[in-house]
Amino acid sequence: MNNVQYQYKFEKILSIKEKEKDEAYAQYSSCLKQFEEAAEKLYKLLKKKEDLQAFQEEKLKSGLSVQHIRHQGLFMDNLEKLISHSQKAVMIARQKVNLYQEKLMESNLEVKKYEKIKEKEYTRFMGHINLLENRQMDEISIQQYMSRGL
Fold first, then answer.
1. Torsions phi, psi of 114, nearest 5?
2. Per residue in 126-149, pLDDT tens?
3. Which of 30, 41, 81, 98 has the most Cβ atoms closer than 10 angstroms to its Cβ?
4. Which long-range contacts (CB under 8 A, 24 or more apart) does 6-10 make?
């Protein structure tokens, strides 16, 4: 009886699902990194704008030339455009993170389903093996009893 081995009938499907889960995790991680980079860029732009506004307020107190005020205004307009673009990039990156997080969760569920099936089948298999071993032991006991009795 010891030479009987358990063979899971969905082993190939389980390995495919595990591979899909690993790929989903890699995509999720990549999107998360892109999101973090986009958010960091947006943060730096917002900080730059805040610093520029503080600098402008300070300079306005001491007086600025019209040329300098125009230059600062153009710079602020360009900075606003960059911030707007960066906000859109962060929003898109966040959506991608959410999408791939969902895919990762679905992949995890699929893998868990097949693992649960495998676990139940293995338990059933071991129960069957134990039953066969018990029957075999009973037969051996009966044969030994019969051989002593004769």
1. -70, -35
2. 999 999 999 999 999 999 888 886
3. 41
4. 6/122, 6/125, 6/126, 8/118, 8/121, 8/122, 9/121, 10/114, 10/117, 10/118
* Separation CA 25–CA 58 (nearest Å): 49
Q: How much is the pLDDT for 59?
A: 80
User: How far is CA 29 from each of CA 104, 110, 120, rounded to the nearest angstrom?
Assistant: 10, 19, 32
Smallest Cα–Cα separation from 90: which of 15, 132, 54, 36? 36
| Nearest by Cα to 81 from 40, 33, 48 | 48
Helix, strand, coil percentages for the chain (3-state, nearest 5): 90, 0, 10
Residue with tokens 């989903």: 24
**Domains with residue ranges and CATH for the chain:** 11-115 (1.10.287.1700)
41-76 per-position pLDDT tens digit: 999 999 999 998 998 888 878 877 778 888 888 999
Q: List the structure tokens of 41.
A: 């860029």
